[in-house]
Every structure is written in C-alpha cells, then in structure tokens.
Amino acid sequence: MNDLLEYTLRLGDDALIAAQRTGEWIAAAPQLEEDVALGNIGLDQLGQARSLLQYAGSLDGRTEDELAYFRDEREFRNLQLCELPNGDFAFAMARLLYFATYQHLLYDELRSCADETLAGVAGKAVKEVAYHVDHATQWVLRLGDGTEESHRRMQAALDALWPYTAEMFASDDVVRQLSVAVDPSTLEEEWTRRVTAVIDESTCERPTSSYQHSGGRSGRHTEHMGYLLAELQHVARSHPGATW
Amino acid sequence: MNERSEFISKHSVEPLYEVFVRSRRGLSHTHVGSLHAPDATMALRNARDVYTRRQEGVSIWVVRASDITASSPDEKDEFFDPAGDKVYRHPTFYEVPEGVEHL
Q1: Cβ contact (<8 Å) for B45 and A36?
Q2: Which of A26, A80, A167, B29 keeps 20 to 30 A from A8, CA to CA?
C-alpha cells in the first residue's frame, strides 16, 4: 500500500470511527441541547471522514462506501482511542478533549502541506475541531470543578483514556517518508501543554499512566471494534448496492 | 407536559435562557426560542448548536429568562387598550407633497 493512501486512511478512519461513537450519543445525552451539540460534532467528524475516504478511494479505485462498509476490522487504521465504547458523559468529554486537541494541532499543520486535497480538508476541518475542543473544555471544567460526584467521574474518565493517548503521537516510516504527512510526534509537546492546562483548571489531576496501548495504525484493535463495525456496516452488507 | 419535559422540569437544576439571534442581514437581534443550560457560557454554546446550525445568524445573545421583567397578561387592559382609539398618534394626518419620493 502506498504511503499517501495509508496516511489518508489513518486520518479518515479516525474521523469515521469517532463519528460513529459520537453519533451514539444522539437521544442519549443528558439534555436535549447536548443531543444537538453532539449531533453537530458527530456530523462534522463524518464530513471529514467522507472527504478523506473519498480521497483515499481515488488513490486505489474504491469508493468511500466501499472503504467504510466493506473493509474488515484489520484493515481499519484508526486509533484505539476512537473506538472505545461510550462510557458516561464525562468519558465522552474526556475523549473529545484528547482527540479534538490532537486533531486541531494536526489539521492546523496539515493545511499548509503540499497535497492540495489534504490541505483543503484540513483547512475546513480546523475550524470545526476548534469548536469541538471548546465544547469538551467547557464540560471538563464544569464536571471537574462541579460536584463531588462529577469530579470523581471526570477524573476517572481522564485516567481511563490516558493510556490510549500515546498512540496519537507514534511516529513510523509512513509519516517520516511521506513528505506531505505531519509527523505526529512533533505535536505531543503542545498537546500535553494544552490538555494539562484544561485539566489543571478543572481541579482534576493529570493522569500519569506508564502503560500505553498501541496497534490501531497497523489494524490491531480492541475487542470493541468488531461490535462497532457490525453496527456500522450491517445494513450496507445486508443490502449491497441499495439506494434510497 | 410529556414525560421527558416533566422529568426535566422536576430534575433539572439548569436555568432557562432566552435566545436572540441576529441574522446576516438583520439589524437587530430577534427572539428565536429558549433552552436550558448550566450557565451563560454554556447557554451561548447551546444556542449556537440549536439555533444557528443552518447559518441562521452571525451574532447571538442569551439572557436568563428569570432576569426578564415582563408585562403581565392581567394588566393587558390598562397597558395596551388605551392606545386603541388614539388614531392621531399615527402619522397619517399629513398631506404628502407631490414629488416627495422617500417619505
């Protein structure tokens, strides 16, 4: 597989799987307004996924639908962070804080890359994810610095997701060899600074876990990924080629 | 009251905010609806998500519903009825000179 295709799939799969998890919150959020907010955020992520998967597909003759619905688990290149099942609302906001902050730094770099399509997608998405960061930040602050129970849950969520954050910054031959790619290891310092600032203000403690999961970029996923794909893909596979 | 709104009104400690949006061409903010939020910052964000997701506006105001002083329906008669027969308050008693276009 060529590096540009591999790299675009990573970006697209992150966005697609994140969108699927965010979308699961619709009609299950703590308030109607949050249903709509998370619906908007999920659709932003889905829009990014579509643009990126269309581009990836154009590189090897597949459509966005073939890539989303007819690849198996081991062919997906997303971060494990994106596929973990939704826990409570604090978990959703901790994940959004970690992931959107990463995406924001990434897209901000990528919009000046030499590949016009990737730069275009990044230029549009950077404003969307800036809002996702803000939304997550507002909630982390309120839950962390809220009641005893909300603080406990916020801390637990930040802790539970921390071991999945190093994977975002893992560097490999693909990102080092591909000139248009952003080497994610260059984003880690600023990501840590921004996320730490929010966690500090929320009165939570920044997690310090030494063990870090990895594998998503090479198609090794958590046990939850299969269930997610079953739900995501089952209609398309039951009725191949169906339109409405 | 349906089950959900009953549940929310019983359990929600979040105050109600009224939302005003200024549209792209509009000169003034117009009331568009209301929503619940824990504080004004979140109310503004919720309003962005609920009321401007189809490019309805370029500026939003939110104000706590409890901070609005409103006229009472009971006072409707003395507040509004006396204006009903004061036709001379409308600028309709002037002859418009011929040739004046933009009056």
Answers
A1: no
A2: A26
Helix axes A116-144, A148-161, angle to 10 degrees: 140
Q: Which domain holds residue A14?
A: 3-238
Integer Cα distance of A205 and A222 in angstroms: 26
- The whole-angstrom separation of Cα A71 and Cα A48 is 19
Does the complex come out with an ipTM higher than 0.85? Answer: no
Number of domains, chain A: 1
Domains of chain B, first to last? 3-70 (3.10.20.520)
The radius of gyration of chain B's CA atoms, rounded to the nearest angstrom, is: 21
Q: Do A40 and B8 touch (CB under 8 A)?
A: no
Task: Give the best residue of B19, B49, B54 to mutate against chain A (max A CB count within 10 A).
Answer: B49
Residues A169-195: tens digit of each pLDDT: 999 999 999 999 999 999 999 999 999
Residue A138 lies in a domain: yes
Task: Kindly report the nearest CA distance between residue A54 and chain B, in angstroms.
Answer: 25
Q: Do A31 and B12 touch (CB under 8 A)?
A: yes
Question: A13-49, pLDDT tens digit by residue?
Answer: 999 999 999 999 999 998 888 999 999 999 999 999 9
Q: What is the pTM of this model?
A: 0.87
Task: Give me the CATH number covering residue A79.
Answer: 1.20.1260.10
In a domain, A134, yes or no: yes
Q: Which residue of B lies nearest to A33 if distances are taken between CA atoms? A: B46
